[in-house]
Amino acid sequence: MADLTVKTDFIRARSDEHKEERLSQIKNATEELFASCPYSEITLTTIAEKLGWSRANLYKYVTTKEEIFLEISAEKMNVYYSALLSAFPEGNQFSPEVIAEVWAGIVNANQDYMRYVSYLNPVIETNVTVERLAVFKKKYYDMAYAFCDRLAAMLSVSRDEAHKIQLDVLFYASSNAVCCYKNPLVQEALKQINITVPPMDFYRDIKNFLKMRLVWKE
After folding, report:
1. In this predicted model, what pLDDT tens digit does every residue of 29-53 receive, in sequence order?
2. Of 12, 54, 144, 187, which is most buried with the most CB atoms under 10 A?
3. H helices within the chain, ranges in order?
4. Is 9:51 a contact under the CB 8 Å cutoff?
5. Residues 189, 167: Cα–Cα separation, whole Å
6. 154 pLDDT higher than 50
7. Does this model's pTM top 0.70?
8. What DSSP string describes 40-100?
């Protein structure tokens, strides 16, 4: 029975529905790998092996691993900004302290997205087609600007300033998310030199950063 499943996986999708199913399988396998492996260790070969496919069959659906990561990033980005827009409705009168607490909670709940963000600009966006990238960027600016308009109204700042604030939070959070990830190679290196790194509290650090950034104006 197991062999029949593998052979079925190798049959190329003939309909849009089946193609979406295959792409979903590819994304799920890649997410699982990224949850436990450094980005550099993930290749189309390791993704194919995770799926039980040949690399040639994987090539029927994707050309680069960055295409897969861009699709996953787009989905996680949608979840993150949808949560922000839901938490901060138009016309609210939240104080900076409340904004910081709620926003930090959303960032913490989307910590895996933050780790994807850390690879977006320097790596993922460098090996996809301009057409794919344009679609991704439009999704980002549509959602980010919608949130920035809310943030600008809450803080009585311009949209440009609000966008700068949300980028600062995004970049700080993505950097922290990478630091919180237990890279096995780094762990072994620290062990060899007898260094114990103080534990990080992702939520607390993000909330403290937000408290500082929301009241600081250029």
Report:
1. 999 999 988 898 999 999 999 999 9
2. 144
3. 2-10, 16-36, 44-51, 55-58, 65-87, 96-109, 111-120, 130-155, 159-180, 184-192, 202-215
4. yes
5. 32
6. yes
7. yes
8. GG--HHHHHHHHT--HHHHTTT-S-HHHHHHHHHHHHHHHHHHHHHHHS-TT----HHHHH
Handedness of CA 38, 41, 45, 51 (dihedral sign): negative
pLDDT at res. 9: 46
Mean per-residue pLDDT over the chain, rounded: 89
In this structure, what token pair is assigned to residue 71?
């699709």
CB atoms within 10 A of CB 33: 19
When pLDDT is averaged across residues 150-157 and rounded to a whole number, the result is 96
Query: Residue range 24-32: average pLDDT?
Result: 96
Closest CA to 25 of 3, 39, 57: 57
Weakest mean pLDDT among 2-6, 193-197, 206-210: 2-6
Task: Please give the structure tokens belonging to residue 120.
Answer: 């977006």
* Amino acid letter, 218: E
- DSSP 8-state assignment for residue 110: T
Q: Give CA–CA dist 153/124, Å, rounded.
A: 33
**145-162: string of b/e by CB count within 10 Å (b at 16+)?**
bebbebbbebbebeeebb
